[in-house]
Amino acid sequence: MPDERYRHTQRGWTIIAASAGLATAGVFASLVGGRSPAVYVLVPVAAIMALLMGTLTVAVDDSHVRIRFGIGLIRRSIELSTIGSAAVTRVPWWVGTGVRRIEGGWLYNVAGRRAVDLRLDGGVRVAIGTDEPSALATAIAEAAGIEPVHTGEVDARSFAWPAIVIALLVACLGVLVYMQTQPSRVDLSRERVSITSMFYRTVIPTSEITEVVVTDSAPAIEARLNGFALGKTRRGRFRVSGLGEGSLFVEMDSPPFVVIHAKGSFAMLSYRNYEHTSKLIEGLAKVAAR
């Protein structure tokens, strides 16, 4: 391998943030969705995106300019002898990142709007995105024996905004999880019992209620069907030993548990605050007495 005159790796924070967002969405879907296959699709896709396109490495040696995305499956080598000019330029915002077809050739860009525009033999154009445009243009020009063209741009890097994007994604996930763990709301009427949490809701017509039982035994869960499970909190559809499939809105370590049996299903509730459970029992008793 020839001695390198220049090597620099630029991180594609937009792609990394998008990958983090996809992975977060997959994990969250699995967290709240039980059998959701999203985690098995989105997390691998996010990992592949980050590995293939998360960085752009440009190296200049005595014979070539070498461009490599991520782990190197996407790469290109340009012979120095074919380069006629190297100019610092700007990339229009709408062109985007990745490998892009541009007028007269190709753009290889991982982030930002700055690039070094190479004009090759036969009028072929190769633009290389970089956050070190002056340094890269100089290294290529010196290696190729040509004069670089500078536009007076100042090299500058900004790492704040991608960190903010990732932090916002994590914060949004945290808020959604927090809201899901809050006490479920129960609305009682002559016609129905409605139980609601952030993402789950079940409605039981009072005419279908067969029994209301209060027990100190936590449910023995056999399977999560379409539900949320975090710590001791359970929300959504589960299969419970001895009861079958039904809806849980419980804190597993907070008895007593109120079980509303209905035709073909059930709903179970409990609260960390015993007063909430006591009021629920009283309200259900009034509904049953009507």
If you had to describe this structure to a student in words, what would you say it looks like?
The structure is a single chain. With 290 residues, this protein is an alpha+beta fold. It is rod-shaped, with a radius of gyration of 30 Å. The protein folds into two domains: 169 residues, PH-domain like; 107 residues, no CATH class. It starts with a strand and ends with a helix. The strands form four sheets. Strands 13-17-18-16-15-14 form a six-stranded mixed beta sheet. A five-stranded mixed beta sheet has the order 5-8-9-7-6, covered by helices on one side. Helix 1 packs antiparallel against helix 2 and helix 1 runs parallel beside helix 4. It has five helices and 18 strands.
Overall pLDDT level: 83
Number of domains: 2
CATH architecture annotation name of the largest domain: Roll
Low-confidence segments, given as residue ranges, are 152-160
